[in-house]
Amino acid sequence: MAEAKWYVAHTYSGYENKVKANIEKTVANRHLEEDILEVRVPLTDVVEVKDGVRKTSQKKLFPGYVLVKMVMNDDTWYVVRNTRGVTGFVGPGSKPVPLTEAEMKSLGIRMENVTADFKEGDTVAVVAGVWKDTVGVVTRMDYGKQTATINVELFGRETPVEISFAEVRAMN
Fold first, then answer.
1. Under 8 Å CB-to-CB from 170, ≥6 apart: which residues?
2. Does one domain contain both 18 and 57?
3. What average pLDDT does this structure show over 37-55?
4. What's the pLDDT at 111?
């Protein structure tokens, strides 16, 4: 079986989330879960200050584009290309070009799979990144994104934080 790679689909601006939902629905209906693995709309956190109040919101990193992790074949190409709102793939002519490893790394997409030696409900210690030396309880595991959501204490309150599997270790 061919290896799944990340491709970029061009969409009408403002239709990114609708395209993502439509592709995911078609994948489920046609049982293509092993060929189209993941669809993402890249988002970034933006801090805005209005009237002295800090507000964090998410904005689309690339308006008009959706990332699709899939095994490229005639069926998958047809499904994505003919999804309402998709205008085509990024690449010369009609030939889609997968993202390189360097491009994926800059988007925060990791290729390697990290196995987790912890599960929901476990107490873990963060060993790298912004939250280094923080201890929290795992509330959610996302194996597709290779992240765990943990509750950490911030200003006296429990706050959920999403952390990469590679940055966390189980406490014994």
1. 117, 118, 122, 123, 124
2. yes
3. 83
4. 54
The whole-number pLDDT of residue 144 equals: 65
Q: Which domain holds residue 60?
A: 5-106
Q: What is the largest CA-CA distance in the chain?
A: 56
Residue 143: give its domain's CATH number.
2.30.30.30
* pTM, full prediction: 0.60
Q: Is the pLDDT of residue 102 over 90?
A: no
In a domain, 30, yes or no: yes
**Total domains present in the chain:** 2
Residues 26 and 100 reside in one and the same domain: yes
Residue 143 resides in a domain: yes
Residues 84 and 134 in one domain: no
- Report DSSP letters for the chain, one per residue: -PPPEEEEEEE-TT-HHHHHHHHHHHHHHHT-TTTEEEEE--EEEEEEEETTEEEEEEEESSTTEEEEEE--SHHHHHHHHTSTTEEEESSSTT---PPPHHHHHHTT---SPPPPS--TT-EEEE-SSTTTT-EEEEEEEETTTTEEEEEEEETTEEEEEEEEGGGEEE--
Cα–Cα–Cα angle for 91, 39, 114, rounded to 5 degrees: 105
Q: What is the pLDDT of residue 108?
A: 64
